[in-house]
UniProtKB/TrEMBL annotation:
Source domain of life: Eukaryota
Molecular function as annotated in GO: protein heterodimerization activity
PANTHER family for this protein: MULTIFUNCTIONAL METHYLTRANSFERASE SUBUNIT TRM112-LIKE PROTEIN (PTHR12773:SF0), UPF0315 PROTEIN-RELATED (PTHR12773)
Matching InterPro entries: Trm112, Trm112-like
Biased composition (Acidic residues): 77-87
Pfam families recorded: Trm112p
One record GO biological process: rRNA (guanine-N7)-methylation
Record's protein name: Multifunctional methyltransferase subunit trm112
Region annotation Disordered: where it falls in the sequence: 64-95
Similarity remark: Belongs to the TRM112 family.
Length: 139
């Protein structure tokens, strides 16, 4: 399960739907793995405005990963600048872009748990797949 996915998940319990504490789900006892993927600068540029940046910052802090900047990087920060400071057309990705790609697309939770901050329910993650099926008494 890629770290990017955690930015779009919330607790499945009906009682948690209206609580802001149910997002993001907090990783617990997470075993991380790096899965190399090809850099896709267009995807990265398009996904940045859709990210809940504070949630991503808290997740990376909880996992002990390098801290993200306080503000979401601008799309022009994802491409190396030429000598004049202009955005290089089709230029190589910047260090920020490479770091974000490694964090969001290559860092995966192989096993562990995702915990709701509202109700405390734990969702198991095994072989990179989270189980969001709730027992019948919790639905």
């Amino acid at each position: 399960m890629k770290l990017l996915t955690l930015n779009f998940l919330t607790c499945a319990r009906k009682t948690c739907k209206s609580s802001p504490a149910s997002f993001p789900l907090h990783p617990k006892d997470a075993e991380l793995e790096q899965v190399e993927t090809e850099m896709n600068a267009v995807f990265l540029r398009n996904i940045l405005p859709r990210l809940e940046w504070e949630a991503m910052r808290s997740i990376t802090t909880e996992l002990g990963l390098p801290n993200l900047p306080a503000e979401t990087p601008a799309s022009e920060d994802l491409v190396e600048k030429d000598g004049d400071g202009d955005e290089a057309t089709g230029g190589p990705p910047s260090q920020i872009a490479r770091d974000l790609h490694a964090l969001l697309m290559e860092t995966c939770i192989a096993s562990g748990k995702l915990v709701c901050g509202n109700c405390g329910h734990e969702y198991a993650v095994k072989e990179g797949i989270a189980n969001f099926l709730l027992p019948s008494h919790m639905v």
